[in-house]
């Protein structure tokens, strides 16, 4: 009846309202996050599986909201993409990440690659390659040490447009990684149509590789990617068993909590020193 129905409708509305208020707070907060210095980059080391040495770092953005506390990028990046704040945030991330190079020269650890996640909106921006080139020259980072991570979901709108932009970027000398590989619908289609240097196998292809048969697809993807002269990166490596299998399959690069969590900037120098002195 009507009386019984109403309360549940109200409860539903309250939750919906709460979600919308939370979202509005995030949207509003994002506009000030940069000017209030609330963003920070963490860097997760990536390892060459054969030598066991650090080959680079992936920059991962963190947001400390003044009232809500830590907000994960998984939550705020999609909002920033919707309201366009990802453009200034993305440039800030790129600059900060490239600046890390100067710090590494001091350690000294000059050949580490810096990987930066790029959103669709940035890739669609025709000025993006100019911004990248400017940031490279300002920070002194050699172009071949910058890797831009893109996902296939951003290519679906127009692969041709994306391809033109990616070629402009590779002409600068930077390298392109296809991130979250295997989570989309037409991944294989992109492999030889884009100027790719690396493919990052999504965590979901690493999680169960130790179970019987589950690893077969992963092993085949690694081989397929390498046959196309693209390096294979495994992310989300959490156990020695996974690492062992990936080594057996000659995957090129590994990243994951087993090897290192993302590090704060202040932790990097100590981390590198520890690594290179082994
Ligand atoms: P992603 O690019 O796939 O980044 C890898 C995520 O996996 C990171 O989460 C990282 O902390 C986490 N991770 C690393 N090792 C492991 C592991 O062994 N196991 C598990 N379960 N997870 C692991 P994070 O930092 O929360 O970032 C989430 C996503 O947010 C990223 O996924 C990326 O898509 C996006 N993101 C982060 N920073 C940026 C940025 O600066 N710009 C853009 N556009 N997106 C970003
Ligand atoms: Ca990534
Ligand atoms: Ca990924
Ligand atoms: Ca992702």
UniProtKB/TrEMBL annotation:
Residues 23-276 form the EAL domain. One of its GO terms (molecular function) is phosphorelay sensor kinase activity. The keyword Cytoplasm does not apply. Keywords: Cell membrane, Membrane, Transmembrane, Transmembrane helix. It is found in: Cell membrane. Signal peptide: none annotated. This is EAL domain-containing protein. The chain holds residues 335 to 612 of 623 of the full protein. GO terms for biological process: cell wall organization. Coiled coil: none annotated.
């Amino acid at each position: 009846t009507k009386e019984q129905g109403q309360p549940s409708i109200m409860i539903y509305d309250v939750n919906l309202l709460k979600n919308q208020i939370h979202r509005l707070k995030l949207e509003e907060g994002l506009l000030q996050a940069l000017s209030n210095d609330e963003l920070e980059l963490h860097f997760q080391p990536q390892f060459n599986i054969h030598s066991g040495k650090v080959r680079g770092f992936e920059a991962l953005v963190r947001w400390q909201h003044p009232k809500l506390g830590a907000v994960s990028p998984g939550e705020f990046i999609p909002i920033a993409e919707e309201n366009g704040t990802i453009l200034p945030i993305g440039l800030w991330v790129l600059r900060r990440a490239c600046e890390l190079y100067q710090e590494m020269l001091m350690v000294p650890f000059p050949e580490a690659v810096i990987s930066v996640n790029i959103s669709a909106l940035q890739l669609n921006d025709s000025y993006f390659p100019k911004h990248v080139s400017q940031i490279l020259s300002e920070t002194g980072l050699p172009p071949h040490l910058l890797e831009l991570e893109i996902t296939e979901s951003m290519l679906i709108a127009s692969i041709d447009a994306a391809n033109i932009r990616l070629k402009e970027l590779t002409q600068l000398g930077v390298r392109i990684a296809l991130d979250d590989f295997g989570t989309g619908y037409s991944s294989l289609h992109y492999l030889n149509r884009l100027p790719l240097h690396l493919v990052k196998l999504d965590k979901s292809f690493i999680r169960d590789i130790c179970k019987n048969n589950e690893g077969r697809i992963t092993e085949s993807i690694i081989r397929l990617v390498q046959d196309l002269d693209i390096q294979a990166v495994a992310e989300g490596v959490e156990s020695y068993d996974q690492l062992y299998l990936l080594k057996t399959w000659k995957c090129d690069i590994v990243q994951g909590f087993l090897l290192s969590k993302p590090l704060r900037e202040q932790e990097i120098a100590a981390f590198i020193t520890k690594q290179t002195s082994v």
